[in-house]
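Page 42, continued from yesterday. The earlier attempt failed because a stray header line got pasted into the input along with the sequence. Redoing it now with the clean sequence only.
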Amino acid sequence: MYQALYRKWRPAFFDDVVGQEHITSILKSEVENGKLSHAYLFCGPRGTGKTTCAKIIAKAANCLSPENGNPCGKCEACLAIDTGTTTDVVEMDAASNNGVDSIRELREGVVYTPADLKFRVYIIDEVHMLSISAFNALLKTLEEPPKHVLFILATTELHKIPATVLSRCQRFDFHRVALDAIVGRLQTVCKGEGITADHDSLELIARLSQGGMRDSLNMLEYCAGDGGTITMEKAERLLGTASRTLLSSLTNAVATGDTANALAVIDHIHSTSRDIAVFWREYISFCRDMLIALSTKMTGVKDEVLRAAAAKFSLPKLLYAMRIFMDAEADMQKNPSGARLYAEMALIRACDSSLSEDVSAILERISALEDKLATGNFTAPQNTVQPQREILDIPEPPEYVGNFEAPPPEAYMEIPIEPKAEPIAPPPKKEEKPKETEKPKQKRSETEFEGRKLKGFRKWQEAIRRISPTEGLLAPFLEQAYAYEGSDGKFYIFFQNKFAVSLLTDEKRKTICGAVNALSTNRYLPNDIIGSVREDVGGIREPIEDILELDEVEQQ
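This time it went through. Structure tokens are written below.
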């Protein structure tokens, strides 16, 4: 009968156990010196050798001629345990025998002396599945068993074991097997089984096993099912993982802000019927490796693909992107059907940090500016989208009068498409008057509101252009409003009606505050933004009128 690779290649000696030398060295010493404990507790991740070491202890304790703490594997006792023909080694699955009745039967059998061997060995796997009453029934026997009995408990969830049980056992913590150790063991198995596999494919299998030797052997067996050579491409296709090339391509798109290519990767994953949530976890793992590489300045990083990808990121930008990716993963777990949408939204935000106003986004943008200052590279990215007016035939914007700066092309990309309208003619220029005597420059007109002096905010239209892309509902009302800076440190906005004032929520104040602070010498907090109705105040004039008059005086 065919045996699975993980059963066929299960270690028979302590020296064959991979990655657990800190445990096997102690167990060998105890066997060699005859100091075996009456109860052991093996805990650790799945597939790391807990049950294997339990069986080796059973053989070593009963071996007629042990060799340096290892069982000989040739005597009657070792052969009987290997073939399972002895009744003195009992393996019990606590997941299916977790009741108090099962433990009572075990206690009744403990009193009998071994039939063939020196010790009766009870191996209880997944012991954390026992009920509280079953644990209580086991306590006294576990603490003081007969001299001919050994208990070996194995679990993957140590925190579920009662403290009273922990205190009665000698505990060993099994670690995840290192990647290099797994690859070495897989190469040994391939050589013994006549399997041809390249090194990259074995590294992929070892990485996907997450430190579990049994999982890696199962994946190796699956990939070798057709009898052909195991290549990297074949392993990726059979195991359903994303290729390093695909992960690197997505990383390059995020690093350069190429939203189109980033979304194309997600579309490819979706069109090939792959699970986007699984791919997303792999990508986060790849980003984690880049984060470690950047934090350690590439120390000990041998993966050239990883080095090249990490070199394109600054640490703040990568931290900003990873926070977005992990938030998207949490959303995917809550709503699996929306995995594609969450992934696309996350990539759009990661490619353009200006869409976010949190601290990590600001730090990333500052880091990008520092890099440009250091390198002197101020060229625009190659994937810059052309102004939408060239495609949709939107008329050119009107010229601006005074000290207003013309808005950048990007400001027109978010304008909804409307029927063509005649270009707005610029306001007529006032006739130049002959220069007479030099007049003193006129100060900006001022007004009063509840005892406070107000000065018109000259850059209000520029602030509106900054606010409009994200505040589409409030923007029309802001365009009709007047904005003033108060002598009391407040920023006053006078709307046409009370409905517009009601739209000025806390979130809107934060947005307005950010735009105004970028243009003003003063620094305002969201609570400093005050909204009112024009009719409540007399003498309010639109700031642009003040600016035009001031420009005329300055020109004279």
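Notes: The chain has four domains: 5-173, 179-239, 244-375, 447-555.
Reminder to self: strip header lines before submitting.
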